[in-house]
Design goal:
203 residues, alpha/beta, Rossmann fold, seven-stranded parallel sheet, 6 helices, Short chain dehydrogenase
């Protein structure tokens, strides 16, 4: 385990989790470089692999990459079409996979990647089939990538719905509880500063 100061590339810095991550990581002495599609120090759309290449060139060497970004469509299964499945893959899987693949040349030899999945990978809800599919794909990728990228590490954080978002999303997760974003950020700290790889931290 190491708690040395690191340079961390934070993807999705403007969201609920991204803000909590920024506060938590900076409080622990890390230098956090923020990335977003429309805001942040570096503005890049990670759903486009060519923009990920440009992002890494602009960012320079980093010790850790943490992702808090990903979008998927929600609708009844019978209404899904091929474009919806593609949107889920592009919005949550492809960008995170490419962050790792392309990041191997830019992240420190013993650095880390932490990706975001979600509770629907193992606790599905109505209208959440695409999210379950995308989250499951990311988790499978993490386990597979960990075998190949050592001594670099890769983990995923799989949170329940955020407590701060219950007013908007709570009705979709009846009886499932919630988790504060600050607690989710602690799981990212475990991934960034710890020694484990190939793990999915469920909260």
């Amino acid at each position: 385990m190491t708690n040395r100061r690191q340079t961390v590339l934070l993807i999705g810095a403007s969201g609920t989790l991204g803000r909590a991550l920024h506060d938590t990581l900076t409080a622990r002495g890390h230098t956090v470089r923020t990335v977003g599609r429309f805001s942040g120090e570096l503005r890049y759309d990670i759903t486009d692999p060519s923009r990920i290449a440009a992002l890494y060139e602009a960012a320079g060497p980093v010790d850790a990459v943490v992702s808090a970004a990903g979008t998927v469509p929600y609708k009844p299964l019978a209404e899904f079409g091929p474009d919806d499945w593609r949107a889920a893959f592009t919005g949550k899987v492809l960008g995170q996979v490419e962050l790792v693949r392309q990041g191997l040349a830019h992240v420190a030899e013993r650095g880390s990647f932490t990706l975001i999945t979600g509770v629907l990978a193992h606790e599905p809800i109505v209208t959440g089939a695409a999210a379950a599919l995308a989250n499951g794909a990311v988790e499978a990728f993490v386990r597979a990538a960990a075998v190949e990228i050592a001594p670099r590490r890769v983990n995923a954080v799989s949170p329940n719905v955020f407590t701060e978002s219950l007013d908007v999303y709570g009705d979709f997760f009846p009886g499932m509880g919630s988790v504060p974003s600050a607690r989710v950020a602690e799981a990212y700290v475990r991934s960034v500063e710890g020694a484990q790889t190939g793990q999915v931290y469920r909260l």
